[in-house]
Amino acid sequence: MEIARNTFYQQVSENTFMKLHVLFAGLQSGVTEHYANLLRESGTAIASSHVHTIGEVESALQSSLVDLVLCTSDNDDLPLDKVISVMQQCNPDALLIVAGDSKVLEEHTFGVADIIDLDDQTRTLHRLNRTIQYLLKDQKLRTLEKQKESFEKRCLMLMDSSREAICYTHEGMHVFANPTYLELFGISAEDDEIETLTLMDLVEADFHQDLKRMLKLSQQANEKEYSLEVSCKRLDDSIFTSDMTFSPVLVDEEPSVQIIVRRKESESATAMPNIDLLTGLYSSNYFQGRASEVIDIAAETGKTHALFYIAIDKYMQMRETVGLTRSNAIIKQIADLLIDASGPEVRKTL
């Protein structure tokens, strides 16, 4: 028995970050304390409670997050059928372990995770250990899923604000495109026009075969990037040359391709290198460089300068309510008002 206890303690000693809430139902108080102490001594943080009636079981499941329920199979005040029913209604994620014989599993195919014999401490510890390992893995999985959702939201926000033209495609169809990409190809963001366009629609026909080959290679998910120089076509039929970079990604668990489009410099592109594509105003980088110059001049000459800081009230709340497309349209309208009010000689950034 000592070997079993030592093995049990070793396996769960690294699980102190998790606080396991165990609900003991219908067990004698001495038995409850005995097994609760064994679990605590193992290094697993235990929050335990003891109930005796089906009403108390329901109340406990509703008022706290219970991970594990241990109950007996021969308690008239706690019929097993009712315990299972209450758990499925109040906390379907909790696991139920029953102190009884094998007939329990035969009579209750669903709802019972395991059976234990409280008189056989070695096996009971082993089965509790197995259950705890399952709960720990389940907790880690849930944590990873939440982190994944948070990471995906953060990535989308970064891509939305990126100055590089980025899109995701699945089998040649667009599933996502950031504002810079839409602006580059002259695509309206207000009526979801991008959803009706394929990647081939935005590339000259002479490059279609090479583009198909790149998409096929990228979808093999070998984590390798591919590049291709192509002639792109805006919706107004104007042509520009760009470098496309392809890399495999997963979008909603579907294999997709991330494409970054970098327009090659031309006379029209270099004429206004510091202009924000969305607003038509000077970009943030230009503002920072110009501000540094003005600060240096002010320090040398003592001349006074003024800076107007303009912010949209409750912008993030508005963006969550109306979405990126409409909030970008509002920003563009405000930028147009600033341009009209300031005149061509005044330089600003939004």
What does this structure look like?
- This protein has about 350 residues and is α/β, with parallel strands linked by helices.
- The protein folds into three domains: about 1-145, Response regulator (Rossmann fold); about 160-270, 2-Layer Sandwich (Beta-Lactamase); about 270-340, no CATH class.
- Helices cover about 45% and strands about 20% of the residues.
- The chain contains twelve helices and ten strands.
- The strands form two sheets. The protein has a five-stranded parallel sheet with strand order 2-1-3-4-5, sandwiched between helices. A five-stranded antiparallel sheet has the order 7-6-10-9-8.
- α1 (about 1-10) runs parallel beside α6 (about 120-160) and α3 runs parallel beside α4 (about 80-90).
- The longest helix is centred in the middle third of the chain and has 41 residues, at about 120-160.
- The model is unreliable at about 1-15 and about 265-270 (pLDDT under 50).
Q: Nearest-angstrom radius of gyration?
A: 32 Å
Q: SSE order, as H and E?
A: HEHEHEHEHEHEEHHEEEHHHH
Looking at the structure, what is the overall shape? Answer: elongated
Q: How confident is the prediction overall: mean pLDDT?
A: 80
- How many independent structural domains? 3
Major beta sheet, strand line-up: 2-1-3-4-5
Helix content: 40-55%
Kindly estimate the percentage of residues that lie in beta strands according to DSSP: 15-25%
Q: Would you count the extended β strands for me?
A: 10
Largest sheet: 5 strands, parallel
Number of helical elements: 12
Report the CATH C-level class of the largest domain: Alpha Beta
**Amino- and carboxy-terminal Cα gap:** 72 Å
Poorly predicted runs of 5 or more residues: 1-16, 267-271
